[in-house]
Every structure is written in C-alpha cells, then in structure tokens.
Fold:
Amino acid sequence: MAQKGSATKVTMDIVGFILHLLLNIIFYAVVIFAIYKVGITVKDFCFQVFGNTTMDAEPGINVEIVIKEGASTMEVASALEMNRIIPNRYSFFLKVQLLKHKILAGTYLLNTSMTYDEILEQITNYANAIVVEEE
Structure:
C-alpha cells in the first residue's frame, strides 16, 4: 500500500513538472510575441516619422483638403488620415511638431502618393493653396 502512495506521488510530481514546464513555455512564447509586435509597431511608426512613407504608389489620387483658420495640427492630421492621404495621424503630428512647421489655412490639392515632407511643403506655403482662407 505504501508503494502505491509513493508511485502516485511520483506520478503527480512528474505531471506537475510537465505542466509547470508547458506553462513556462507558453508564457515566454506570449512575451516574445508581444515584444516582437511592439517592436514592429515602433519600427513602422518611426519610419513614418523619419522616412518617406506614402499611402499609395504613384500616381495616387488627388484630394482637395480644406484647412480652416485656427485648426489645430491634430485636426489637420485627422483630416488627412480620414481622406487617406497619410497612414497615421500621430506620426504626422509628431513630424510637424519636431520640424516646427506652421500649417496655414486654405484649400490645398494633395495626392495620396505624397510623402509627409511633400505634404508639409504644400500646406505650409500660401503659394501652394488653391484658395487662401480669409483671416
């Protein structure tokens, strides 16, 4: 009878060890996957801010954007994202803040194949506006 109890204890110890090992493997796999996904997201975001990202390849689609007087940078970035001119409003907002550009009111013709720098070149110069908003 004593042998049956010790055999059961050994079996339970082995099963416990195997379960503990499997749970550790699953936990570390989830952690590694999460780190990988965060890394990809950060890389993509940084490329959007510092690289030459566009929504579409050439020739793209022309879109008229109206920027009202007093519109915030985030409002402009949101409008650009909603019109599928930029992929991410937060990366555009950060780029504008880092470069200290002043977005000017007016109506601009932008293209979905333009980079952030080309878009900023357009919307920070009254000469590029189709219609200039009255102040």
